[in-house]
Amino acid sequence: MAAHMANVLLTSLSEKEGKSLLPWAIEAANEHQLLQSEQNVQDWVSHINTSLGAAKTRLEGLCLLGTVVRQCSAGTFIQHGTTWIRMLTQVLQAYDSPLTLQMASHVLACVVQQAAQYPEVAREVASTNIPALVQCLLGAQDHQWFPSALEALHSCMKNFPGPCGPSKGKIESLVCGLMDTNQPRLSQLLQQTCPLLAGCGGGGAGGVKYTEAWTHLCDQVLGSLHQVLDDTYQDIETGLQTYSAPQVSLRLKTVPESDPERTFVLSTRFHNLCGCLQQLVSQDFPSVVRIPVPDILALLCRALGVNAKMLFGKAAMEHVLLMSALPKIHCSALSLLEALIISCRSHLVPHASVISQLLVQTLGWTTSDEGVPGRQKPHSTLRSRAYTVLTVWLNVCGAASGVDSHADVILQHVLKDATPQADTTKLKANRPGSQDQSRRQKKKQRGVDVTDQGLTGHRKVDSQANSDVCSAALEALKTLLEVVGSIIKPSIHKETQEFVIPLLLKTHQNQSDPPIPYSCARCRKGLYQLLLAAVLVLHPRWPPPTHCAVKIFSVGQQDYDLQVSSYCREALLTCMSIIHPRAPTLQSPVIISDTPTISKLPTNHMAPSFQMLRTNASETMLKNSSSNGNLFTVPSFKSASQSEGMLKDNPSQSDSTAEVPESFSKTLRREEDMAGPSVIHLDGSSSSSEGQSSSEDSVEFLEDVKNSEPDSSTLETGEPEDAVSNAGRELATDMPDNEDVVLIQGHIEEGSAEAPADTTDLSTTAGVKRKHESDGEGDDDNDIQNADIQAMLAAFVPDSTPDEN
């Protein structure tokens, strides 16, 4: 199908009205890539060769040849590449129309570039075609097709530098003669061609000749730049600085002596020379070279050292003209500084203070308060260039750039350039008229004058005014926060947030008519980028505006510009990932219910032991109810250690006459400990499982259990049997099944020793407070019961050694 389509298109071009179908046929061939197959392209190559031989069809053949060269296969180019270069050289040597010669030069540049990729074609072209082709292109200097000829010459010097060596002197003379050109395309080609002079000819052993040629050319360009500054600044420089300018220079034309032509030529020459040096330090070179960084920085300091404020008070014509050309000179110097930063990168850290000072100095003298709302401010192009170089400098060297010491000054400049100008109306009262004024003039001046600067109906408004400098300033501030945001003053974060958040809210309120220059989508996107940077960059002494940014980005998704709305969506997703992290962060509050309790065993491990103890206690209470008639006796615990005097004993009451005080039932209460299990307080004092250590009391509890008798292991009191508290009886009968506190029925046998009625609190592993009384020694029949109790308690009482102290 592709072959049939290619044949149909070629047949259409061969017809009588084929010239009118040429653009359509080329577009179809490019879209479908019809000429990649060798079978499809053979007929096209025959048609092209025939067309190039006739003057009437030569332009058509050149257009088709450009299409074939870009699409054909390697085999096709190897077969016909040399023939095409020879035919194109013949076309350039013929006297044809400028349009035909321009098209031939453009196609020749493409063919030469493709020929260098195939060694078999490159060898033949280098030895046969390039010398004659260079001589032909050098002769086109005074013709209209010279820019295209210079493009073809650039392609020959770049892809075949060796064969161009014999013509190096002529090429250098051509380049020097073009240094004063002001045509944009020709100036760009000149700046790209000049660095290739260092590679013309042979490189020698190890590329030594290449290195020497590059160094010599760099010194020539630097020397020429210093000569231009000598003629431009003359007596304006302070003379405090000394510069070591190279003694060699390019053979440039003589500078005119009369103004304004003299100032115009000097500023244009400085721009082109800076462009040549910029390409010289940026382009790839076949040998290793050493860039003279101190010499280039010295040149930049000299070029940027003179500003408009130094020339403001001088009324000479040359000073006024220089003031008009000064922004162009400074922009060229800043472009050279940007190329130097990109090429040398971190090697410029020793010169960080100089570079930062140059950028801040440029922003300082270009600031202006004379701007009118809706109109372009002075020096906007130069300020945009300074902000761009500042952004590159921050991205390359980061915190080592030294910009953090100038952060306050940079912030003030950015706020001045990014804040919309407010419409103002000034009222100016007239002073009383002088005596020589007539009565009519005094009457006319009576009252006030209204100076209107803000009414839209009375002035010209440009909605895109200052948009370039505003977007560049916002980008510079965003980069400043991202690079050194954590080490600058917190006041800078504060002022940045106070600037960007109200401005975005104001923009949301007036989406149909945003403040100038925020009708430009790039400026609005720069505001959102700055807000996201303020959220992401954390400062130890100033919080990020995350809560405000979420709402602002949500509203920003409704922006009518697609790039702005899509960026707001991405920024909102970033904020959501901060607010709702995928995993708990270290800074989140600790939830007590989620943390494991170290000092308390799980309930399912403790419940069986407690249930067994409860069952034994119930059976003992039922057994003792027939003997003493007590369902529950008021416990009066005291351990063996307390009975020896470790704690103060409470006085016991008589067995037969003393009664339990009424207040005792009130002091018996149950409290819930927030951090541990339930605790029963018998002495009216409050105890917590967190405030006391349980190891010592647990050991005492174990010793009491080992030394107790079967019947005396229960809780006992010295109170009369009929002096049982109602509160204690209710607590014993209503005890839940899952409580952590177990009360054991007290029992008194006949003839057994009665223990003192002092009490103490004993802790278990789980933080449970226990009450126990130390009784006398029991009989041998009680060993079995003691062993059972000890086995049950071993599940939750830790093994510990009693403290000897």
Mean pLDDT: 76
Helix content: 40-55%
Distance between the termini: 104 Å
Q: Which shape, going by the Cα principal axes? A: globular
Subcellular location: Cytoplasm; Nucleus
Protein name: Proline-, glutamic acid- and leucine-rich protein 1
Keywords: Activator, Cytoplasm, Nucleus, Repeat, Repressor, Transcription
Biased composition (Low complexity): 683-696
Can you offer a commentary on this structure?
- Pfam families: PELP1_HEAT, RIX1.
- Its main location: cytoplasm.
- Residues 642-657 have a biased composition (Polar residues).
- One of its GO terms (cellular component) is nucleus.
- The protein has 805 residues and is mainly α.
- The protein contains 31 helices and six strands.
- Helix 3 packs antiparallel against helix 4, helix 22 (490-509) packs across helix 23 (521-536) and helix 23 packs antiparallel against helix 24.
- The termini are far apart.
- The model is unreliable at 447-456, 600-610, 625-780 and 795-805 (pLDDT under 50).
